[in-house]
């Protein structure tokens, strides 16, 4: 039952909350000066940055990012648990999702994939340490 509720909230309520946030953001953005919007989109220094290796229950996770034009253009997980079939199965599904969401959101603000919460925590932490290095 909890899985059903989580799935419902994740897929159906997420869009409603995002719409409210987007509406609020667009109203705020319309009233703010254009220079603040442009500085927001270029908040990182171009280059490649490697985040800290973060230890979790199943092993270590480490992320490398590429910043181009002040935005995340590539996220690569360079170290992750892959010692057994379960690790390989979970990470082959979760890590590409985390990487693409990071690029799409231009931040470490990403959703967890069900069954990969520990990996998500470690991924976000390593990603954030790389982003901290890239801050202007």
Automatic annotation (TrEMBL):
This is FMN-binding protein. Gene3D superfamilies: 3.90.1010.20. It comes from the Bacteria. Residues 56-134 form the FMN-binding domain. InterPro entries: FMN-bd. GO terms for molecular function: FMN binding. One of its GO terms (cellular component) is membrane. It comes from Oenococcus sicerae. Pfam families: FMN_bind (PF04205).
């Amino acid at each position: 039952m909890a899985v059903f509720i989580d799935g419902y909230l994740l897929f159906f309520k997420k869009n409603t909350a995002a719409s409210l946030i987007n509406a609020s953001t667009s109203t705020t953005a319309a009233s703010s000066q254009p220079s603040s919007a442009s500085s927001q989109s270029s908040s990182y220094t171009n280059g490649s940055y490697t985040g800290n290796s973060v230890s979790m229950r199943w092993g270590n996770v480490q992320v490398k990012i590429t910043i181009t034009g002040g935005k995340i253009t590539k996220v690569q997980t360079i170290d992750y648990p892959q010692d057994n079939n379960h690790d390989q199965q979970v990470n082959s599904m979760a890590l590409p999702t985390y990487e693409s969401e990071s690029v799409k959101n231009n931040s470490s603000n990403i959703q967890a994939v069900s069954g990969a919460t520990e990996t998500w925590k470690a991924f976000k932490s390593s990603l954030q340490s790389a982003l901290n290095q890239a801050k202007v």
